[in-house]
Amino acid sequence: MHFSEIIGQEHIKNHLLQTIENNRIAHAQLFVGKEGSGTLAMALAYAQILLCKDSKDKNVCELKCDKLTHPDLHFAFPVATNDKVKKHAISNLFLNEWRSFLKENSYANLYDWFQYIGVDNKQGQLSVEEAEQIVKTLQLKSFEGGAKVMIIWMPEKMHVSAANKLLKLIEEPPKNTVFLLVSEDEEKIINTIRSRCQIIHFPPLSVSQIAETLISKKNVSSEEANSIAMQANGNYNKALKLLSDNSKELEFEQWFITWIRAAFRAKGNASVIQQLIEWSDTIAASGRETQKQFLNYCSQFFRQALLYNYGAKDLVFMKPKTANFKLENFAPFIHSQNIHAIFKELDDAIYHIERNGNAKIILLDLSIKLTRFLHQKEQ
Fold first, then answer.
1. Which residue, of 93, 110, 173, 321, has the greatest Cβ tally within 10 A?
2. Maximal C-alpha separation, the chain
3. What is the distance between the alpha carbons of residues 339 and 336, in angstroms, rounded to a whole number?
4. Is the pLDDT of residue 121 over 70?
5. 315: Cβ–Cβ under 8 A, 6 or more apart, which residues?
């Protein structure tokens, strides 16, 4: 991965190059940015420069980095048991899948990764065993005599016990060892880890940056590229899914519309409650990562409806594909009197699902509350 392959973020590229040129490379760096902003891609490109800058054969070194097989490039990322790995799941057991996954799309998100390895019905994490493996790996000498780079993707998924095991190593790593932590939400990283890192924040990509990339790399027409870039909301991963008409996004839309229609009819109609129970059972059967992804999608849908209701139509990028459903008809029901309560309940539902609460009960409780929110009048 080269800096030239990364979309935008020029000021961050320049900053990282300067740290190398001035020999002021922080031993622990935290790249923070929303999905699709290029944090992981940047970490891969930066790691390649660190590993190859003093190499005797730079071409061979870069080839190894491109294939993600450089012996001094190490990875840790959330995993869980699946059909292949029955127990003691750690990153090293998934390296072949990880390399293939990144080759397909280095802008992909955690949900995409869990689907790729077949664990989207579980909650992956960076375990204590993972932390022990990191310690063992970095205690060894550099294979090629230069730097060692450890990329930890999604450290917010690190178990507290694992984080505690890594504290001293991150604070005082072996010579020429660089930690690159790549996160979407720094607030969910244990503070003792976060405080030991130099933090770099990545802004969302602009509409023009995404559109230009789609035109040059995906041979998309200018009109279609601009339309997709607007809908992507700074997220290149979402742009790629919109381009391929991602089926999961369409499924989420159908779930959402079925849900709000039932919730709207449920007031004063007890028979509709059974439909909400059946809906909750359907979503609960999908796996916890899918449930969380769907609830985040719901938040985005409600936010778009609110923007439409208050006339900020230039910021509305969602275009529902479900027949007989129009955003402009739904938008008036989302307003200042109910939006805060809706967001709070969605956030609470995600919180409880992450902590292994009963998804059927959580989703049904959310549904019943939604029936009240949708009928709340704006004052």
1. 110
2. 76
3. 6
4. no
5. 307
| Tens of pLDDT, residues 23-46 | 899 999 999 999 999 999 999 999
Give the CATH number of domain 247-374; options: 3.40.720, 4.10.1000, 1.20.272, 1.10.10: 1.20.272
CB contact set of 319 (below 8 Å; sequence gap of 6+): 231, 327
Give the per-residue pLDDT at 247.
59
Q: Which long-range contacts (CB under 8 A, 24 or more apart) does 136-143 make?
A: 137/74, 138/74, 138/169, 138/173, 138/174, 138/177, 139/174, 142/72, 142/176, 143/71, 143/72
- Using the structure block, give the residue that is written with the tokens 């209701």: 309
Question: What tens digit of pLDDT does each residue of 363-372 get?
Answer: 999 999 999 8
User: Among candidates 261, 320, 239, 253, which has minimal Cα distance to 293?
Assistant: 253
Smallest Cα–Cα separation from 110: which of 88, 78, 152? 78
| pLDDT tens-digit readout, 14-29 | 999 999 999 899 999 9
Classify residue 57 by burial, with Cβ atoms within 10 Å: 0-12, 13-18, 19+: exposed
The answer, as to whether pTM is greater than 0.85, is no
* CA atoms of 332 and 325, how far apart (whole Å): 14
Percent over 70 (pLDDT), the chain: 98
For 233, the token pair is: 């909301």
Q: What radius of gyration, in Å, describes the C-alpha atoms of the chain?
A: 23
C-alpha separations of 258 from 275, 292, 299, 370 in Å: 9, 18, 16, 13
The DSSP 8-state label assigned to residue 27 in this structure reads: S
- Rounded to whole angstroms, the Cα distance separating 90 from 379 reads 54
Read off the pLDDT of each residue in 5-15 and give the average, rounded to a whole number: 94
DSSP code per residue over 76-114: E--B---SS--SS--GGGGHHHHHHHHHH-TT--HHHHH
Q: How far apart are CA 310 and CA 292, in angstroms?
A: 27
Class of domain 3-202: alpha beta
Residue 246 has pLDDT above 70, yes or no: no
Question: Which amino acid belongs to residue 67?
Answer: K
What is residue 54's predicted lDDT score, i.e. its pLDDT?
82
